[in-house]
User: Fold this.
Amino acid sequence: MKLERREVVKKLLEKRGKLLVVAGLGSTAWDITAAGDSDLSFPTWGAMGQAAMIGLGLALAQPKRRVLVITGDGEMLMGLGSLATIGVQKPKNLTVAVIDNERYGETGMQVTHTASGVDLAAVAKACGFKTSKVVTKKISWRKTVHETAGPNFLQIKVIAEKLPLVLPPQDGVLLKDRFRRALLGKG
Amino acid sequence: MQFPEAVHRELVASGVRVVGYVPDAGHKRLIELCQADKSMRAVVLTTEEEGIGLAAGAWLGGQRSALLMQSSGVGNVINVLGLLKTCRMPLVIIVTMRGEAGEFNSWQVPMGEGTQAVLETMGVAVTRAEKADEIAPLVKKALRKNSAEAILIAQRVIGIKSFQEQTSR
Assistant:
């Protein structure tokens, strides 16, 4: 059984508290916005392949805060090396959640490598992530995201569906400044 | 003082806490200094692209960073440099040049010739150090500017003339 992406992301962000969130471009950026935009969310509109690395930089700069990267399988595949880099740095406060619909959702729903069985969770595990799971049914992720010493990796299998766009602000300076202001008290 | 020590001192003085790098013979000493410095996190990358994401995340989290690469790596970061420009994030990139006078590998030449143009096209301000003692002052100046800056270190400053010499360093 596969899950519904908006439900999954809503659940991941439930009672998020002080959680710092980075979203990969495309569907996952719309998903986190549908769950409720926040100053402490940094949805990307470009730089494909860098969501996990932005999460790593943030996790290293803010070791006392929990960091959650929510990205798609296509975006993660473009930055596969970043899993190795995260595996070397071993940030305890970082979780990468891949919302895996096995499709490039913004370009015509073409299949990604995961549709052919490429196992991102196995890659993350081999790279040294402490927790790495393929998730196919509804469970609580709260402990993994907020407590478990990472780096943690969740590959969450979801239905390939086209959903109404829920767009976050696009202005990069605004997204950066609001995040820094909320986190650091400065732009 | 050799230039790696002088550059390291400038990074520390400007509060740089995260240094991403893809190893390069010309950056060998500076990488070692950053690794040995407890106030810094030296992050080895699989590709230079990752260094831009790393820097963006560190800046969102309130930390300055620097990125060390060879000129070939500049070709790997083109698209993601857009992140720095769109979000107006600062980053100092220190680039050791290849494909210039003294190059022994012709495959390094095309990217070496394109390095400065690529960076400038993507909105990164470029300065060039032709001598070792120019490097640290240029890094210092770039760190003050709070924008995306690259310092290119001319290949003759590093002075590697053969593959044998590079591997024996």
Observations:
- The interface with chain B takes residues 20, 22, 42, 44-62, 79, 81-82, 84-85, 88-89, 172-173, 175-176, 179-180, 183-184 of chain A (CB under 8 Å).
- The CA atoms of residues 125 and 140 of chain A lie 20 Å apart.
- Chain A has a mean pLDDT of 96.
- The longest helix of chain A spans residues 172-184.
